[in-house]
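Encode chain A's predicted structure.
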Amino acid sequence: MDFGYGNGVDGVFKFISNAEVLAVFFPKFGQSVVVDIRPKDGVAPLVRVVPMARSIADRLRTIKRMRPDLPRPQDIIAVPWVGYVEAMKTSGLWDKVVARIEESGFPDAVTAAETAFAELVRLERRELAQLIMGEQYETLWARPTS
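Encoded structure for chain A:
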């Protein structure tokens, strides 16, 4: 399976293995999961679901506000995910993210990652329910009735 990334997510995996700050964003429902594993004594990695940013510059400002004790990140890996949230697990992407968090040595951060994943699934399901029920969506065209 290619999950919308050509021959697979292997290229994305390489970036994740080196990233200190990662944002996976979901255009379908306007949310992101931000993972900041920059090391600092006694400071656990940040794993949080936040609204999707309009730009990388906006995301960097948000991260600086969430982690004021750390310097502004030098770079950030932003991964658009257009598939279902659960596909992050079946593709192996989420396992790579969690492995990076585990390397930090903060078990609470791993728990935060699983909580964030469950929140993403919940938000996606809510968006799909709204689509099915017609909430926040309008029909662009309808089949003529006879």
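The longest helix spans residues 107-133.
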